[in-house]
Amino acid sequence: MSEALSTADPAPQYLRVKNHLREGISSGRWVAGDLLPSESDLVSLFKVSRMTVNRALRELYQDGLIQRMQGVGTFVADLHRISSTLTVRDLAEEVQARGRKHELRVHLLETVAATAEQAGDFGLRAGDKLFHSVVVHFENGKSIQCEDRLVNPATAPEYLDVDFQQTTPTQYLLKVAPLSEARYTIEALLPSDLEAKLLCISKREPCLVVKRRTFSRGVAVTSVKLSHPGSTYLLEGGFQA
Amino acid sequence: MSEALSTADPAPQYLRVKNHLREGISSGRWVAGDLLPSESDLVSLFKVSRMTVNRALRELYQDGLIQRMQGVGTFVADLHRISSTLTVRDLAEEVQARGRKHELRVHLLETVAATAEQAGDFGLRAGDKLFHSVVVHFENGKSIQCEDRLVNPATAPEYLDVDFQQTTPTQYLLKVAPLSEARYTIEALLPSDLEAKLLCISKREPCLVVKRRTFSRGVAVTSVKLSHPGSTYLLEGGFQA
DNA sequence: TAGTGGTCTAGACCACAAA
DNA sequence: TTGTGGTCTAGACCACTAG
Description:
By secondary structure, chain A is α+β, with helices and mostly antiparallel strands. Chain A folds into 2 domains: 13-76, Arc Repressor Mutant, subunit A (Orthogonal Bundle); 91-229, Chorismate lyase-like (Chorismate lyase), CATH 3.40.1410.10. Helix content of chain A is 27%, strand content 36%. The first copy, chain A, has 7 helices and 10 strands. The first copy, chain A, has helices spanning 13-26, 39-46, 50-62, 91-97, 116-122, 169-176, 193-199, and strands spanning 66-69, 73-76, 81-89, 102-113, 129-139, 142-151, 181-189, 207-216, 219-229, 235-240. In chain A, strands 4-5-6-9-8-7 form a 6-stranded antiparallel beta sheet. In chain A, strands 1-2 form a two-stranded antiparallel sheet. In chain A, a hairpin with a 2-residue loop joins strand 8 and strand 9. In chain A, helix 2 packs across helix 3. The two termini of chain A are 29 Å apart. Chain A binds a DNA duplex through residues 12-14, 38-40, 48-52, 54-55, 57-58, 68-74. Chains A, B: Keywords: DNA-binding, Transcription, Transcription regulation.
């Protein structure tokens, strides 16, 4: 018995090549800096075309496992880093995906005059109009996020009239202003007085805070501070060589 | 004048296709759920081979911008998420890359008997030997990370003899046990008494805490808790459609 | 000059889904 | 049955690096 009992999935050829190299790297057979077999070596080894080998190697490069240099060769990359994809999804979706009940309470919804700094973030002038909302998200009745948001009226003029029981601010903004770019930071902070009150936590309980600015077609759409009680919220991730 | 003044970089064909679609998506010409042109449409449009079109589409899929269904078509993905690569590098490298001075102080280096829970993490039995280290990292003389680590002696028998002034624990472990898998969480916590003392911060200052377990060839190598003062440390990231 | 990777083609066969 | 995407081939030309 050597292969494919019954109609077992006949793994694509490029995956055979890719897995062979990946296993060699994660098993330590090749270590950081080692020269790997060339494309033509792999062509002979696996009896496949060069395009197929090339796809395997390109994907390993995109995964950060190898480095390639034209005219020189393919090498095992330094794995002195753990990279993985951090995904920040719409919170309502995330909660529902866990099979829990998502609720949202609007605490504030208003128009404000931009400070100089805020105006700068949005490419507007100080004193220009901005929308401001503060809403709290609940999972099975427990507060999990305080969302303090500024919105550029130019990209979402109807923002103040949205029914946030039907559509979360994130969902609405993604709909009216297709996401093209985002920048975020993650830090640990103590809650403000208001955040502590809205989240029903102690002012001494640390919060995981995500600050995010998003852009659509190069224009700033919204700037948001998402505060999560540290005791109930964490980000998870993984990585596989 | 229609093309290539002088020897301007002749962008690869697959990038022309990829950029055309990406710009259409981020400009809102196509929005989430829309059907995109088929591979054969793009072949005629750009006068290139199907393999070239296919590469462009495959990369857009890997970037999370489109969804593809065999027999159906290619659609704009829901961008109800912001994904980006979170990279956790060796701290010494990171500090040096910023042009700062990295220092490290070893606070503890010992052998301990595994508790039942720790043993489980490492696939050992309660009471088995584990190495334990607590070191503090400094950037330009300022404490930035407290690293509390357990190490599996089977994968790094010489751990206790390493000179951590020369090689950080992370660097050493990556060298002796090639990284094959990692799992981490990120949360906001108050420091323990020891952490507060070692980091020279108040016991009320929130910390950004990364807990990470890494594996090599399927065997648990190390389990570490990295605590960073919230006031000086944050994770940054970005995303571009 | 020889060997490497980067890109591209014009076909091909297949699995799959919808009409 | 038609059109879709998923994979693969056997060539090709090029730019780059090293000896």
